[in-house]
Structures are given as structure tokens and as C-alpha cells.
Amino acid sequence: MDKTHKCDKSDKCAEKRDLIIQAALELVAEQGFHGAPMAMIAEKAGVGAGTIYRYFENKDDLIRWIYKNVEERFVEVMMQGYPEHGPVRERLVHIGTALVRHLINEPLQLRFVEQFHNSPYGVDHRREKIFGQQKKDIISELFHEAVAQQIFKPLELAILFSLFFGPLVDICRDHILGFIKLDDALIEQVVGACWDALRR
Amino acid sequence: MDKTHKCDKSDKCAEKRDLIIQAALELVAEQGFHGAPMAMIAEKAGVGAGTIYRYFENKDDLIRWIYKNVEERFVEVMMQGYPEHGPVRERLVHIGTALVRHLINEPLQLRFVEQFHNSPYGVDHRREKIFGQQKKDIISELFHEAVAQQIFKPLELAILFSLFFGPLVDICRDHILGFIKLDDALIEQVVGACWDALRR
DNA sequence: TCCTACGGAATGACCGTTCATTCCCTTATA
DNA sequence: TATAAGGGAATGAACGGTCATTCCGTAGGA
User: Fold this and answer.
1) Which of A5, A51, B40, B59 lies in the 20 to 30 Å Cα band around A179?
2) Which keywords fit this entry according to its UniProt record (chains A, B) (predicted)?
């Protein structure tokens, strides 16, 4: 929930807000929640400690706001250029490739989301995602359709998601941490391998 | 590193030590590191707060000790009844199935390890694992052999591990949290799917 | 009596949050 | 234009609480 604030439009206030967000994103991504106390976020953003509370109710509010925005950007990226009427494999490869490309270009966003998922809210968030999955997002639809057409193995959505997205996120982390070196050819191979896991 | 202690052998002291370990394991697994302060661990173990420091140098020492032991148990379980001279697929299915069965029987151990991996030490530990991978554990050997025989896709070990173990651990967590319900048939299907991801 | 294990209050560091104060920009007035 | 007043934005020292760790008095066995 945003805190009501006099100047929402693109003026100095918005700039300051963005500075806080960026500082928090970086610190949490690089040091974890432990390594991102409010005082440090404020210092990195170049504002006073109290100023943060003019823009966000409390730390939870700040963290959740960042998470929501980062997640939305993930979906946007996967939907950009999505071949809506192409065959299932093409659509899936598009999603996987777009996701991996984005994650390795925005390592802070990946690390932040991972930190978030492994925290008290993380479980609640996943529960909501899985059980509240009545809303028809395009990716869930694609998976459902592929199961119905007997292209995918007849498994629950949660399992199919783990088979496909789990390894992709893992290798992005390994790339960011310098354990492996991803390039376009390798990304294609790994996405292909994840496809193989899903295929009937 | 254990702290030197007069009575190491199976007497009352060892019992008390185990109580501390069990309490810490449960609290960290269920509440995360934040929710497992030393005072709470002591209370749950039924000992004084200071007593913990007679058995472990500090909290880090305690946590690392538990992690090391839990991880060793994972390997033990995967190696129990390992069909060393069977075909690659049989050996891999054995490992995957044994791991999943163990993890869903010991949810605390899985949750603890996940908490550990997402913490400051987590990255260091993984770095050590990947770059210090000169030691020939049986599982790495199996993967190397399968690549050499062109049974697996020609990918780095870290990637193959992510493709195989990543989804397996994910679905165990989902099972523990009640999001899905694993049974023997389903485990077999999922392990089979992970095999498909690796297969050339 | 000596020595070791133990408990739990005490300690000091640190964290999120608050709030009295200051700063600065806008507006009103002459 | 010059000046004063008003008010929202920003600040950072201070507060209350929590944490890991230490310290010291006590109990019990040799």
C-alpha cells in the first residue's frame, strides 16, 4: 500500500522515492534482509532514516512494494513478443528464453526475489499463488492447454512449473554468481531440456 | 568445530547436546533463522541459554554443524541400496526416489537445508561445492559417466544437477507445505520427468 | 574441598520506528 | 520587488525491544 503523499507526479519527491527503492533493492539483493537495515538503506539512498517513512508505512510495506513491482516486470518481459498463436513449444521457449535473458541482465531483481521467497512472507505468497490460481494468467493457460492436448505429461500445474521454471532460475543464479557462463546457445539448450521434462 | 568437552561419549552430556541440536533444527526449519534466537533454542531444549556455549562456540558453529550432519544423512540415504553396477537410468532413479522419500519423511531437514542455502553462508557453500568439485563423489561420477557415454546432454555438471535435483527438491517442499500430495506413483513420474530433461 | 557442568540474569550491540525540530518552497501582502 | 508567514518535507537523535554472548553464583560428584 502506498502512503498518501502530496507530490506523486514526476517531481523531486518521486525521485527520492526511487532512490529509496533502488537502495533497498540493491542491499537486500546483495546482503539479504539481515544486511539491509533501514538506516543503511537511508544512507545509501542519501536521505534521512525518517524520510523513508514518509513514502512507506514500514519496512514490510517497502519490501512488498518492491517485490510486487519486480514480479510484474518479470511477467511483462515474458509477455513481450509472446507468439500467442504459435505452437506450444514455440510459446514455451519464448517464455523461458525471455525470462532467462531478463534475469541475467537484472541480477539484483533475481536475487531480491529469491530473498523474498525465502522469508516469512515467501510461503504465504506461494500459498496464495497456488490456491488462488483461479485468475487466468496466460502462462497457466498455456500449461493447461498443453496438458489437455496431451503434449505435456498429465501432472499438476505446480509440478510442471517446478520442472520448467525451477532449473531456469537455478542456472541464472549460477550465472550471476559466476559459477557458470550462459550464452544464447546454452540458454537454448537448457530451455530445450526443460521442455523435454514437460513433454509427454 | 566441536568445542572440547569433558564428556564426549554417550552419557548425559551427549543427550543434552542432542536436545540442543534437535531444538535448533526444528526452530530454524519452522521459523527460519529469524525465528530461532538462542534463548528460544535453549528453552525448547530445556537447558539454560549459557549451556549451549558449552557445546558450541557460537550460533554459526551450531548451525554449520547441523547442516553438515543433515547433508551427510542425505548422501547416506541416496547411497543406501545404490545399484552400483546397474544401468545409468536405474542408478539415477534410485538416487532421485531415495532422496524424495527421505525429504518428505524428514521435512525439518529439508526446510533447514533450504534456510541454510538462502543465507550468507549459502553462497559460500555452493561456491565451494562447485569449484572444489575435485573430490569424486559417486553422484558426480555417475553424471560424468552418463555425459561421456552420450546418454546425457553435453552440459556442465552444475546445470545437470539443477535440472535433476532442482525440481525434486521443489516438489518436496510443495508436498511438505501441503500444496501437492506426493505418492509413490507420482514420485516415479516426476523422477522420470527429470530423467527426460537430462537425456540426450 | 576442589572441580566441572549448569542456569539465567546481565551486558552491550543493533534494529525498526518515532517525533520534536529544522529546512525550504510557496504564497500573501504592501 | 522585497519581505514575512505558513506549511509540508526532511532530518537524525532518541526510544523500546531483541539478539548473541558473557559472567558469575550454585549444585553435585569425586
Assistant:
1) B59
2) DNA-binding
